[in-house]
């Protein structure tokens, strides 16, 4: 995979940049600009080398949302250029041809275009024809086999952006970890998390599981979980729950029967009743994690560990005090970190959600493989 500093001869030429600008937006207001800001060093680098840039990015899954608020954000940051709202290829080409003197063209939500999600060859050929080189700085979408992720690198000299390289370097530390290594996993969906859980029960010294994943595992260990969110028919859990490295909540916050959220109880895991719904980990569980957090050299956290955020917040506060290298998987956990304004308290917070989980499970992603196989110099 080629680094950005190998990309030469781009003065007055156009470089295509895949960015992940899939950020939370409410009423046209960007709630968390983390992912956009993470790509600014790559944009600045390309501009400093005299390039014009065409940025390809998505927002939401179905292409319906507009990137207009992101164009506004870039404008406020004093970047020069245009936002092309049209999805007509000829209009986009005209706008691309107009670029000069370090201007940026932000193309409307790339998922609006037929051929992006299906990675259609002719769409990738069209995109590639707009520039002389391709840079992928969108680690967070590099688990998708889309045209703007894996199609273009087959057609143009391609390079990893600065954030992409940082993600690979920092998350790569987890693949060859320092010990003691504590892995903390939350959220739901065994389908995506089971491979990860199996892998890290081998690699890590201890694995704590919270969130809906923990409910399923507690049930498998024979505990009552009442009406809590859990998954049936997951194969291979019988053996897994016997693993002594696997740590589960020992007390939990429950909604009892029809009580309102105001009447939450914290109960020991053996005291959960049929009418209960587990919605968070209890304080005793977190207290028991403290010695592990304090002795660890590496901690990886991909949450959240409850349906409500209190436990996740308390855990993040404990992790922020740890002397270990603390690496946080993005996605839902990132929103909590943003709210707590704690991003700089950790060794690394990944911009990826699903992409981070896939990278941790497989050690690579389709978008990274595509960069490795890409053409040579621009
Ligand atoms: C994300 O939000 O994780 C990335 O932008 C990828 O989005 P996607 O899950 O819609 O492909």
From TrEMBL:
Reactions the enzyme catalyzes: (2R)-3-phosphoglycerate + ATP = (2R)-3-phospho-glyceroyl phosphate + ADP
InterPro entries: Phosphoglycerate_kinase, Phosphoglycerate_kinase_CS, Phosphoglycerate_kinase_N, Phosphoglycerate_kinase_sf
Key words, A-Z: ATP-binding, Kinase, Nucleotide-binding, Transferase
Coiled-coil regions listed: none
Signal peptide extent: none
GO cellular component: cytosol
Protein's GO biological process: gluconeogenesis; glycolytic process
GO function term, MF aspect, one: phosphoglycerate kinase activity
Listed EC numbers: 2.7.2.3
Residues where ATP binds: 193, 309, 330-333
PROSITE patterns: PGLYCERATE_KINASE
Alphabetical list of Pfam families matching this protein: PGK
UniProt similarity note: Belongs to the phosphoglycerate kinase family.
Name of the molecule in the record: Phosphoglycerate kinase
């Amino acid at each position: 995979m080629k680094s950005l500093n190998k990309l030469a001869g781009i003065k007055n030429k156009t470089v295509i940049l895949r960015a992940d600008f899939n950020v939370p937006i409410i009423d046209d207001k960007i709630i968390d600009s983390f992912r956009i800001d993470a790509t600014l060093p790559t944009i600045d680098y390309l501009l400093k080398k005299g390039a014009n840039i065409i940025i390809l990015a998505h927002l939401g899954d179905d292409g319906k949302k507009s990137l207009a608020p992101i164009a506004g954000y870039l404008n406020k940051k004093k970047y020069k250029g245009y936002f092309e709202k049209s999805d007509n290829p000829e209009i986009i080409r005209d706008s691309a041809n107009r670029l000069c003197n370090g201007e940026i063209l932000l193309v409307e939500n790339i998922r609006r275009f037929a051929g992006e999600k299906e990675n259609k060859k002719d769409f990738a050929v069209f995109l590639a024809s707009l520039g002389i080189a391709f840079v992928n700085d969108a680690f967070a979408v590099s688990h998708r086999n889309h045209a703007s992720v894996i199609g273009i690198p087959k057609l143009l000299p391609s390079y990893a952006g600065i954030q992409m390289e940082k993600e690979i370097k920092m998350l790569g530390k987890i693949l060859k970890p320092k010990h003691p290594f504590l892995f903390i996993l939350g959220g739901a969906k065994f389908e995506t998390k089971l491979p990860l859980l199996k892998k890290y029960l081998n690699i890590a010294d201890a694995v704590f599981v919270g969130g809906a994943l923990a409910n399923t595992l507690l049930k498998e260990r024979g505990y009552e979980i009442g009406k809590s969110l859990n998954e049936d028919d997951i194969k291979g859990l019988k053996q897994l729950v016997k693993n002594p490295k696997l740590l589960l909540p020992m007390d939990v916050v429950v909604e009892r029967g029809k009580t309102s959220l105001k009447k939450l109880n914290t109960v020991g895991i053996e005291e959960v009743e049929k009418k209960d719904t587990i919605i968070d980990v209890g304080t005793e569980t977190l207290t028991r994690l403290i010695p592990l957090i304090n002795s660890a050299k590496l901690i990886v956290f991909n949450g959240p560990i409850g349906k409500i955020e209190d436990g996740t917040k308390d855990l993040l506060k404990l992790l922020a005090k740890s002397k270990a290298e603390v690496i946080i998987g993005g996605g839902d956990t990132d929103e909590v970190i943003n709210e707590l304004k704690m991003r700089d308290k950790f060794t690394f917070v990944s911009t990826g959600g699903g992409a981070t989980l896939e990278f941790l499970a497989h050690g690579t992603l389709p978008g990274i493989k595509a960069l490795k196989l890409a053409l040579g110099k621009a």
